[in-house]
Amino acid sequence: MAAGPEIAQPAALVAAPPKLNRRSTALMSAWLRDLVISLAISAFIIVFLYQPVKVEGTSMMPSLDDQERIFINKFVYRIESIQRGDIVVFRYPRDPQKSFIKRVIGVAGDHVRIVDGHVLLNGKMLVEDYVPTVYQDDRSYSEVVVPPDSYFVLGDHRSLSNDSRDFGPVDSSYIYGKAVFGYWPVDKVGRLR
Questions:
Q1: Domain 50-191 belongs to what architecture?
Q2: Which of 2, 11, 12, 59 has its CA 20 to 30 A from that of 123?
Q3: Residue 81 pLDDT grade (very low, low, confident, very high; cuts 50, 70, 90)
Q4: In the chain, where are the structural domains located?
């Protein structure tokens, strides 16, 4: 065979390890680390500090509507005491599997009496601007002295509320949070009072 012109073969390309792989691995590791830290912090906040809850029922209208979403502070009562006017979340005394949300009217030692729907606290009529006239009822309730470590609670929608008028004062061991902030629906976003 005749020798003809030689055709140069292309030089073998040597594949260098791409720098992109190392960068993307480092980026992915940092992202995963940040995600795990964020989830851990979120879990800590939800378990120990704040918990989102959904209001079910109309007993706290107009302050809280049915299906409204709020945050409760589960830590606050470890550093401060429960006050009159606080909106608290507690296990229902007759069925601790259920949770209720109500407003604290009386604390330990208070004398609470209701006459034709008007609350008398320690002998003085309580001014309740959070209970509109259409939500009042005319039930009366004989005077009770709130026992130690207990609270007298009422729903703001007095004519539809199952509260201390029905099940008596709530022991402090049943209370596990203070309603502090509404986040849904958007028109109700804000601090609760």
A1: Ribbon (2.10)
A2: 59
A3: very high
A4: 50-191
